[in-house]
Design goal:
It is built from ten helices and no strands. The chain is mostly helical and 197 residues long.
Length: 197
């Protein structure tokens, strides 16, 4: 499925409002994360490794969320207490594309605007609106940031499936981890009061 056919997918959509973060502030954040051009190159290599494994990666991640009742709760209809299948399916499609996007990110203004939108979709100001569902109305920031670890740790075995050297796998994994943490930080911006981010 092409990215443009994924419901609610908006990377590169010129109608998205710009991020309040400037490009200079993004570069400072990347520097704080020790994220450089070598990481961008490692992520490009990682994309070729994982592009045919996206569904298997999602199976692991969805299995993790399903095994954690406090996380699965954010996909449930509060009235029925049951997960909303259409919501889980729509998010899965976007999550799969997000894996590829993370490996191919341009780190430009369009990408930065999309990160702001993703953060808003986890926050009470935007949760559920994209998919028009009745589900938990807000994901606490603590879980948004904490999930950077399982999303990072579980990626390493997938990066080691195509015969790259240990050093190459380590470089791809380090770059992936930095990129995931960078995005989790950016997604937390809607949660922080003005002047504190």
């Amino acid at each position: 499925m092409s990215a443009s056919a994924i419901p609610g997918y908006r990377l590169g959509d010129p109608a998205l409002p710009p991020s309040p973060l400037t490009m200079a502030e993004l570069r400072e954040l990347q520097a704080s994360l020790l994220f450089g051009e070598e990481d961008v190159a490692a992520l490009r290599k990682a994309r070729a490794v994982v592009e045919d494994q996206v569904e298997a990666i999602l199976d692991i991640w969805y299995g993790f969320v399903a095994a954690q009742p406090h996380l699965l709760a954010y996909f449930k209809n509060p009235a029925t207490g049951q997960p909303v299948p259409s919501y889980l399916d729509s998010v899965r499609k976007r999550f799969g594309q997000w894996i590829l996007d993370t490996c191919a990110a341009e780190y430009d203004e369009a990408w930065l605007a999309w990160q702001e939108e993703i953060g808003r979709r986890h926050h009470r100001t935007g949760k559920n609106r994209t998919d028009g569902v009745e589900a938990a109305p807000h994901i606490p920031m603590r879980h948004l940031i904490a999930l950077a670890i399982p999303i990072s740790v579980t990626m390493k075995p997938f990066l080691a499936t195509k015969g790259h050297s240990v050093a190459e796998v380590e470089a791809m994994h380090a770059a992936w981890t930095k990129a995931v943490l960078l995005q989790a930080i950016l997604w937390s911006r809607p949660y922080v009061k003005d002047g504190d981010f």
